[in-house]
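Researcher: Checking consistency across runs. Here is Putative nitrate transporter NarT again:
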Amino acid sequence: MATKANSIKLLSISTPQMRAFHLTWMAFFVCFFAWFACAPLMPVIKGEFNLSGAQIANINIAAVAITILVRLIVGPLCDHFGPRKTYTGLLLLGSIPVIGVAFAQSYESFLFFRLGIGAAGASFVITQYHTSVMFGPKVVGTANAAAAGWGNAGGGVAQAVMPLLMTAMIMLGVSETFGWRAALIVPGVLMIVMAFVYYRFTQDCPQGNFSELRAAGIAIEGGKKGGWESFKLAAANYRVWLLFVTYGACFGIEIFIHNIAAIYYVDHFNLTLGQAGMAAGSFGLLALFARALGGWASDKFAARGNLNHRVTLLFVLMLGEGAGLLMFAHASTAVLAIGAMLIFGLFTHMACGATYAVVPFVDKRALGGVAGIIGAGGNVGAVAAGFLMKGMGDVQQTLSILGFVVAATALCALAARFSSSTIEENVIASKLAA
């Protein structure tokens, strides 16, 4: 019977583990691209709909708010239906508002579709679930972080590519109004294509699909009960809520920066739309390696010590993120701002990877519930940051406050340390997997 993979063979797609690895990061990339496709075009959309600062803040909050609920739901759904069916359904349903936003005719309709697009952000939970059930303890941190990091890069690519795509549409002879709308249809179509590819070429776990395994009476790790039972088990674990907070302070900040970076560079440093898109895109593109680096480092720290070395690393990374965010907030020129953004972005992405290198060990009985609740924490952080900016009315002051908050929440990582019995169980599981 097939088992979890204990190595990552990047150039292979011959095993179900590696097919899931590659297709899950590709699906996540498409979802993230769609999720943040509007952000770099906001300076143009702002002018067309005559949006106020408060309305833009509402749009940014809407973009991440619905993801909280959907992330809480899709984790247990993975336990019940399996990641293959759950991902396929999310891609197909998520494509509707992505395409719909191109037809918005007012602030209200744009806000409605932007809210719906946020569901695509729940793809992250399914990505982490699928790699967690496919890879063993020695490499699960690296697998989770690499898949999530390469997928996260879709946000950075959207920042750089969407203005270029809109420009290409305009060069074909259409108006600017039609250009940004036509550009926004592209990610919706990509989601539909990816849904069919994912359903056709992946399976739920190394042994097969959940429905077939349950019918055969075979026990499924991570999806033993599913649904509401998975959620209740996860919600009763205090470590889940500590990591909920830390993930809000790293991934939540990442989402917040994705939403405000382009318009911040345009308004504060007078960059062009293209320049601002490239600058903001560099933050997201860090995820190509930085998130994977965080997961890899977590695996290495755990191998040389024990499970608690993973949370110690997370603590250090979050302190670095907080310090870097303060540097970014007080940068006086565009060059300094970009440099500071890359520094704190490195710590941010690595902290995200290190967080989900801990997730598979929190409660193996309810992997979907754990992944879903902690993943939702990221969006709670982003929504909180959005409300803070709306209340402060000043991006720089908001960033400064967030820098101190991030550093303070690093303490939650230390508080999530594991007991000696849990560490011993993990050591035994690693030896058996070897």
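Researcher: Does this match what you'd expect to see?
Model: One thing to look at in this run: The chain has 18 helices and no strands.
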